[in-house]
Structures are given as structure tokens and as C-alpha cells.
Amino acid sequence: MQSITVHQLREREGTPLIDVREVDEFAAGHVPGAVNLPMSTIGDHLDELPDGPFDVICQAGGRSARVVEALTARGHDATNVEGGTGEWIQAGFDVEK
């Protein structure tokens, strides 16, 4: 599985970011520019995924890792963000609400 750190994510440009946390978690604060497609409903929204490479984030990296494994098996070019939004916030990076 492809993975990047939150520090690498911060330096990336032009790669879409999918946040797979639930709607209330996303609303409480997320990485700027992230799009919310909750893990619990992502199967219903596969047509909304980017055509090219994209990154996947959750709170700590567990849910996003499972989503990346499943999407990669379906042929998507997905990368897991290790440490998730929790590590992003802990690093002092900006969040959107």
C-alpha cells in the first residue's frame, strides 16, 4: 500500500484528498481542500472518486488504510495518509471547519 506522512501531504500540490471520516468528524475540522466521502457510504459514491491519483485520510490512519486497500484492489491509484487528521493537527497545520 502506498503511504505518505502528513508532512509530505502538506507539500503536495494538485493531488485530491478524500477524507473518509464521518460527516460530524469532518465538520469539526479537516485538512484544507479535503472532500468528505465517509467510509460508511463510500461504496455508494465510487463514481465521485477522482480519475487519477488521490490521497485518503481519516482520523488516525486506520480507516483510510482499509479504504485504500479496497480501492487499490478495484484499480484506483489511492495513497494512505499515515497518522491522519489527528497527526495533521498535532503538527500544528491549519484546519478548515
UniProtKB/TrEMBL annotation:
This is Rhodanese-like domain-containing protein. It comes from the Bacteria. Pfam families: Rhodanese. InterPro entries: GlpE_sulfurtransferase, Rhodanese-like_dom, Rhodanese-like_dom_sf, Thiosulphate_STrfase_CS. It comes from Microbacterium hatanonis. Residues 11-97 form the Rhodanese domain. One of its GO terms (molecular function) is thiosulfate-cyanide sulfurtransferase activity.
